[in-house]
Amino acid sequence: MPFLDHLEELRWRIVKSLIALFVCLGASFWFSYSFDILPVLVKPIAALLPDGKLNYTNPMAPATILMQISGVLGIVLASPVIGYQLWCFLSPALSLRERKVIVPVLGFAALLFLAGIALAVFVFVPVSIELMNNIQSSALKPMITAEAYFGFMFFICLAFGAIFEMPIVVLILTALGLVTPAVLGKARRWAAAISLVASMVVTPGDQVVGTLILWLPIYGLYEFSIIVSWFVYRARLKREAASESIRAE
Questions:
Q1: DSSP per residue over 143-166, as a string?
Q2: pLDDT tens digit string along 148-167?
């Protein structure tokens, strides 16, 4: 198509994506408000709260938290439509082999992101808050507020979800020829040290257990990324050898 036709198609893809996003945001807000999903999100730490409820100090906190949850849920619900519109715009420029590869990779990336969020919500957040709550002092009285809890949860979920995308990043870099399995294997010690420091920065307070809970999956993902890189690198070498044999003929 001519360039202006491409721009017109892109404009309509964006419009459809925005419509889907606004519809999903509205549906998510209605669902969150009507069915009160906040107790479900508080459940991982309910046993640590005196009456099973969070306190809040800002009168706008309930509405703000509800809108934040609705925003996250709306983006998740709209992501298939947005991804489909993006795929429809880009797929004509891709070869058949590239189409067969990209779809499973995108699906695997979504599963990794959800796995990171699940680990954060059901393991890391409860353990971290319990450890912090056990640090008692005669001058301190624990009071977990709703703003602090949900802010902490959203930050940790985003961090875990992003970290779990490491194999996808390594896959792309290997496919582009920027890294190789041999280079990743030699950098194991650096990866272990850097991931440990990053885990110490992300985890709040002086928590050995919390740091290990984050560090173990990070380094495990690095080792898994080496395996992924090996398969991609091997496939790339085969393609390059096939191309050279065709040119030789």
A1: --BHHHHHHHHHHHHHHHHHHTTH
A2: 888 888 888 888 888 888 88
